[in-house]
Write a structure and sequence with these properties.
10 strands; Rossmann fold; 4 domains; elongated; 339 residues; 55% helix; alpha/beta; 5-stranded mixed β-barrel
């Protein structure tokens, strides 16, 4: 406002010339117009670019920022080395080409470092650790986003201890806020589930062998937690780990990879083929006549034909059919030695 008001003052003096009668009016009007114009334009050149830059920096992973800075430094160093021989060219090339070199090599350095950041950081990590191959946990720089359902589920704690999760698990701040909201719910069941999720997350953060981190990266263009997760996964080019069927479908439709623990559980269940024998404890009646129902250790339901008389007993059964459904695997069997 001060700068544009001063420019308006000088413009008013120039337009009025030596006519002191009109000079005051010109100066006053143009100074007010300049101040008003400055009031309108100031946010567009100060606070708004700053907020936009801060928003972008919050969304960009730290690794990408480091890669960008390193690429820019390498590009500028190469441009500085090239500026000396280019300065011996005839004019105007000696004046233009060094500046062009700064722009081109700076852009190329940033582009190469960002595109190959994982490979470069893997090599640096291996060199610093002194191991030619590097450990699997130290050499992985990919991310996995955790949603609220997978934290409350709790199986992520056992899976992470096995070493099958190759990457750093990120818990966005908005997921943590939703988890806290569930823990503060007036409904007793939801409150217990939320508190259990907080305890599991706390255990993961304290475990030195588990790569879990709470991040402040956010998405300003979405309000729902699921929408934020999908958009953030797109920006980071990483999968989402969840047990939520609806989030699984929405993310898959938008091209975001999903790691569903329920699908993993179904995939690692013991495989039984028709004709094989197993031992099962019949614990209750089935829906059909004389049926008995039992469960394997992994929760797979076993329906025993003519198994009602064996309720409360552990018997050997022959598998007759294996049915795979969306809810899981179901096994049908008959007693091996019926009454």
């Amino acid at each position: 406002m001060v700068v544009l008001a001063g420019l308006g003052w000088q413009l008013g003096i120039s337009l009025a010339g030596d006519d002191f009668g009109t000079q005051g009016r010109y100066v006053l009007v143009l100074s007010i117009v300049g101040a008003a114009l400055g009031l309108v334009l100031t946010p567009f050149i100060t606070t708004r670019p700053y907020r936009k830059a801060r928003q972008l920096l919050r969304q960009v992973p730290a690794q990408a920022l480091v890669a960008t800075v390193l690429g820019l430094i390498v590009g500028l160093v190469i441009a500085a080395l090239m500026a000396f021989p280019l300065s011996f060219l005839p004019e105007p090339f000696s004046q233009i080409l060094p500046f062009v070199g700064v722009v081109v090599f700076g852009y190329m350095g940033i582009g190469i470092m960002v595109m190959r950041q994982q490979d470069i950081f893997n090599v640096l990590g291996q060199r610093l650790s002194g191991r030619p191959g590097g450990s699997s946990m130290a050499s992985v720089n990919s991310y996995i986003l955790l949603d609220t359902s997978v934290i409350i589920d709790g199986r992520i704690a056992d899976i992470s201890k096995t070493g099958f999760i190759m990457g750093e698990m990120l818990v966005p701040r908005f997921v943590l806020n939703e988890l806290q909201h569930v823990a503060d719910s007036p409904d007793r069941l939801r409150r217990n589930r939320g508190r259990r999720g907080l305890e599991i997350l706390n255990g993961l953060l304290k475990d030195p062998n588990t790569m879990v981190r709470v991040t402040d990266m956010d998405v300003e263009d979405a309000y729902q937690v699921d929408d934020k997760l999908v958009l953030l996964a797109k920006q980071l080019h990483c999968p989402i780990m969840t047990t939520d069927y609806n989030l699984n479908r929405v993310a898959a439709l938008q091209g975001v990879p999903v790691m569903n623990i329920n699908e993993l559980t179904n995939a690692v269940k013991a495989v039984f083929l028709p004709g094989e024998t197993m031992s099962i404890r019949v614990i209750q009646e089935g829906k059909e006549y004389k049926q008995g129902v039992g469960y394997l250790e992994d929760g797979t339901m076993v329906v025993v034909e003519d198994g009602q008389p064996y309720i409360g007993q552990t018997i050997d059964v022959n598998v007759t059919k294996v049915l795979q459904t969306a809810a899981g695997r179901m096994i049908f069997a008959k007693p091996e030695n019926p009454y």
